[in-house]
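lol forgot to send this yesterday, sorry. struct tokens for the thing we talked abt
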């Protein structure tokens, strides 16, 4: 049964998914904003372009690679993005980032997952937003983090994966931020490295 993460909660991935965990997928999902019509007429929806990011840092906190809608794969190929969903349409995960933990270079000590709203609406308007971590072997959900935190922020620092010997620990961060791309969020990310 997946763990519903609370802000700041940390879990051992090996403990939750088993010691043979090799690859995880971060799934991000959301729905378009539903417009309210006048007297039941003129409703509809407004597309929302949330963007999932995976940022790879070394032990000294230096950003060494970024996987996002403008770079869909890490330089070594161990991290892959599914592609940019610009509407939130459809069921399930709208964007995913897969991390092959066995192929991550030894220099990568921390992977930070974040999300930005490229179209600029704040999270108080975005419906049914979540992020989840899935063991790709068997497609079993390990943990889920509800992003429906109401607020006027346009970005969130979601979670971190930190190397701990041969294991990885996941921490739900849930820190609000602002900006259209991950580069705007680096000052808010640094305290979590």
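and heres what i got for the seq, position by position
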């Amino acid at each position: 049964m997946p763990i519903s993460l609370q802000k700041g909660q940390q879990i051992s991935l090996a403990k939750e998914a088993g010691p043979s965990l090799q690859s995880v997928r971060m799934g991000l999902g959301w729905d378009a904003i539903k417009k309210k019509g006048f007297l039941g007429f003129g409703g509809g929806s407004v597309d929302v372009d949330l963007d999932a990011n995976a940022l790879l840092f070394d032990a000294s906190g230096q950003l060494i690679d970024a996987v996002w809608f403008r770079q869909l794969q890490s330089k070594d190929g161990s991290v892959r993005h599914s592609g940019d969903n610009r509407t939130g349409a459809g069921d399930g995960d709208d964007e995913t980032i897969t991390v092959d933990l066995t192929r991550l270079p030894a220099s990568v000590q921390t992977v930070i997952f974040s999300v930005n709203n490229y179209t600029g609406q704040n999270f108080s308007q975005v419906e049914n937003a979540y992020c989840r971590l899935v063991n790709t072997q068997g497609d079993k959900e390990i943990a889920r983090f509800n992003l429906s935190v109401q607020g006027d922020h346009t970005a969130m620092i979601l979670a971190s994966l930190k190397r701990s010997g041969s294991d990885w620990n996941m921490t739900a961060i849930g820190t609000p931020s602002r900006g259209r791309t991950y580069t705007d969020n680096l000052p808010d990310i640094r305290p979590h490295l």
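The chain is about 5% helix and 45% strand. anyway ping me if u want another try
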